[in-house]
């Protein structure tokens, strides 16, 4: 780029009237604090609002949150502690883009999934990179990242100089990030609880719930916990596997969502079916600590996104009413803040500084929820006025002072001989037709329903296809696919997508899929497929499980983790382990499948480092053999 933008810091707030000319001739007028250091550059020159020319080595602002202003094509940074914009610069992007913050670089992620990286110190942008997947990625800011999680596709993109795409090998729920940069996630198909360390190029799964269990990950005191909404329990998760189950003691539905972090030690859960917020004391993890009763708060009717936690308060966004609702750790309502109107759907974002940010879809306003529950409205500072001045008519010619008008030059006399010609008949005068009236202006509206929606069942999956929806005056920005039946869920796809494969479905359960198109005005009506029923192939999956029983505990010892899928529902199977160690023998373990033909368990303490192990069972009259696993020391 031919410009450079540098950020600096000042120690005082001084109100100034500022007028800056943006590239393209637009003007920016605002009365803003001097701490707002916005370097708006054109033609290679640097302008800083401190009144000094900063050095090229100025540090980037590590805290706070970046967002994207679609009108000015700018990335702006908010200092969360002051709720002030302290940096901004023009970066190419599209309406509805989101900005992620890394250590030294930022990333503008468009609604089409494309990624533009820029330097946070200079705001110099790199050429855009194509979308890693057609699915709209979930943004996660963490050490070693940031990341985009493609939950249905089973992939995680680690953003950096080059995008690194990591295969999770199956669909998963919303990840959470610990302080050391480890991502923890739950596989929604196998039930495995997996981690991705900040320097790893693949995931590992030290623990597992039952296949088909619903729920999600959260952090309690910075440590990962799996909230199982199927059996309504909590389990700690770590490198050594999962801890003992602790009952939730609240009647949550399978669709209940946990906040990514606790609220003063309590786990915040939102049940969209009952519209209730629960705050659960996880003290059962420590038998010496008395456990307090769960708290329940009834929310008003609405379409809610969240919950998100600042550590002291929990936040939800009512997308139907354009409101931010906050509650404290006792379940008491703290505030209801209107979200300034603008086209599109507001985004509820957990910032890397543990604050919560509500971004307008076009970046015109951001609400900042501080740790103590204070809410600040931050407009995009210095938005150029969308006005234009018609060109003025040229000034009249002014005679030069002291001169006088000149007579035209005399022409010599000439003799002209005229001949009489017959005069043509007069042409009848016609009245000119008035110009046609301009067509009436039609306001943009949400898109129409997609055409030809269909679904085809697979093994624990279904492929959903659709045709394009009419845009109705505003381009389609995304397609939302939802499903119901054996389970419910949703995935958002980019505007060019025409199909997606939904993973993690229960076999022998019927599902119906609905697709709706989205533009800046809103969501259009949905169109549904016919009912389809996934049918599975019997499969055994073997992985390393948790610690051995105490009597077998020695170096390299761990249990084998076995997952069954695609088997007959509510049936008994005997699982037998095998090893390349000729002296190994084990009688096996019996297990019952659930109503979807799935089961999982941990058994068979093993410490034969260097050996290869596998398990077998009998299904439909044939022997089913698992994958082969080389046993390691840990």
Write up what this structure looks like.
The chain has 634 residues and is mainly β. Among the domains are: 1-131, Thrombin, subunit H (Beta Barrel), CATH 2.40.10; 454-528, Immunoglobulins (Immunoglobulin-like, Sandwich), CATH 2.60.40; 539-630, Immunoglobulin-like, CATH 2.60.40.10. Helix content is 0%, strand content 39%. The protein has no helices and 48 strands. Strands 17, 18, 19, 20 and 21 form a five-stranded antiparallel β-sheet that branches. Strand 34 (454-457) and strand 35 form a beta hairpin. The radius of gyration is 32 Å and the shape is globular. The model is unreliable at 1-62 and 382-419 (pLDDT under 50).
The tally of helices reads: 0
Corresponding CATH architecture of one domain: Beta Barrel
Residue stretches low in confidence (pLDDT < 50, at least 5 long) are 1-62, 382-419
Q: What is the CATH topology of one domain?
A: Thrombin, subunit H
- Report the mean per-residue pLDDT as an integer: 80
CATH class of one domain: Mainly Beta
Keywords: Carbohydrate metabolism, Glycosidase, Hydrolase, Membrane, Polysaccharide degradation, Transmembrane, Transmembrane helix
GO molecular function, one term: hydrolase activity, acting on glycosyl bonds
Protein name: Fibronectin type III domain-containing protein
Organism: Amycolatopsis pretoriensis
Quickly describe the structure.
The chain has no helices and 48 strands. The protein is mainly beta and 634 residues long.
Question: What structural keywords apply?
Answer:
634 residues; mainly beta; Thrombin, subunit H; Immunoglobulin-like; five-stranded antiparallel sheet; 48 strands; 39% strand; globular; disordered N terminus; Ig-like_fold; transmembrane; transmembrane helix; hydrolase activity, acting on glycosyl bonds; hydrolase
């Amino acid at each position: 780029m031919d410009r450079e933008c540098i950020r600096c810091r000042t120690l005082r707030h001084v109100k100034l009237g500022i007028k800056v000319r943006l590239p393209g001739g637009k003007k920016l007028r605002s009365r803003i604090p001097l701490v707002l250091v916005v370097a708006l550059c054109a033609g290679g020159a640097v302008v800083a609002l401190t009144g000094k020319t900063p050095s090229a080595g100025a540090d980037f602002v590590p805290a706070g949150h970046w967002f994207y202003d679609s009108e000015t094509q700018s990335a702006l940074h908010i200092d969360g502690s002051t709720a002030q914009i302290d940096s901004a610069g023009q970066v190419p992007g599209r309406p509805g883009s989101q900005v992620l913050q890394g250590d030294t670089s930022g990333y503008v992620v468009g609604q089409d999934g494309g990624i533009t990286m820029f330097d946070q110190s200079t705001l110099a942008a790199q050429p855009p990179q194509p979308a890693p997947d057609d699915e709209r990625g979930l943004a996660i800011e963490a050490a070693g990242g940031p990341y985009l999680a493609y939950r249905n596709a089973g992939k995680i993109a680690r953003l950096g100089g080059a995008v690194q795409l990591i295969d999770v090998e199956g669909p998963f729920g919303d990840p959470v990030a610990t302080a050391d940069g480890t991502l923890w996630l739950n596989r929604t198909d196998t039930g495995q609880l997996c981690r991705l360390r900040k320097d790893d190029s693949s995931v590992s799964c030290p623990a597992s719930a039952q296949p088909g269990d619903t729920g999600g990950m959260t952090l309690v005191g910075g440590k990962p916990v799996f909230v199982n909404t199927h059996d309504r329990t909590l389990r700690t998760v770590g490198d050594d596997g999962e801890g003992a189950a602790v009952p939730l003691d609240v009647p949550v539905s399978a669709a209940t969502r946990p906040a990514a972090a606790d609220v003063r030690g309590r786990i915040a859960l939102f049940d969209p079916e009952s519209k209730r917020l629960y705050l659960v004391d996880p003290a059962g993890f420590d038998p010496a600590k008395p456990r307090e009763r769960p708290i329940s708060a009834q929310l008003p009717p609405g379409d809610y996104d969240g919950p998100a936690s600042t550590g002291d308060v929990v936040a939800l966004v009512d997308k139907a009413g354009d409101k931010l609702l906050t509650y404290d750790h006792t379940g008491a309502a703290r505030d209801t803040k209107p979200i300034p109107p603008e086209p599109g759907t507001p985004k509820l974002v957990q910032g890397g500084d543990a604050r919560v940010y509500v971004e307008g879809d076009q970046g015109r306003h951001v609400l900042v929820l501080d740790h103590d529950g204070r809410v600040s409205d931050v407009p995009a500072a210095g938005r150029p006025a969308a006005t234009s001045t018609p060109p003025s008519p040229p000034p009249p010619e002014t005679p030069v002072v002291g001169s006088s008008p000149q007579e035209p030059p005399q022409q010599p006399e000439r003799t002209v001989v005229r001949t009489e010609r017959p005069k043509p008949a007069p042409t009848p005068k016609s009245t000119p037709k008035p110009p046609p009236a301009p067509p009436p202006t039609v306001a943009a509206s949400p898109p129409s329903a997609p055409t030809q929606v269909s679904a085809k069942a697979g093994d624990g999956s279904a492929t959903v296809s659709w045709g394009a929806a009419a845009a109705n005056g505003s381009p389609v920005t995304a397609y939302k696919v939802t499903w119901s039946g054996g389970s419910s869920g949703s995935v958002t796809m980019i505007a060019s997508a025409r199909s997606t494969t939904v993973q993690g479905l229960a076999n022998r359960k019927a599902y119906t899929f609905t697709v709706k198109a989205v533009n800046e005005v809103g969501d259009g009506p949905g169109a549904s497929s016919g009912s389809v029923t996934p049918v599975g192939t019997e499969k055994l999956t073997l992985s390393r499980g948790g610690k051995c029983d105490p009597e077998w505990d020695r170096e390299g010892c761990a249990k084998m983790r076995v997952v069954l899928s695609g088997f007959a529902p509510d049936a008994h199977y005997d699982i037998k382990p095998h090893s390349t160690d000729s002296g190994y023998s084990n009688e096996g373990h019996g297990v019952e499948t659930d109503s979807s033909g799935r089961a999982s368990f941990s058994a068979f303490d093993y410490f034969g480092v260097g050996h290869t192990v596998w398990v077998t069972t009998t299904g439909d009259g044939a022997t089913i053999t698992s994958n082969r696993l080389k046993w390691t020391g840990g």
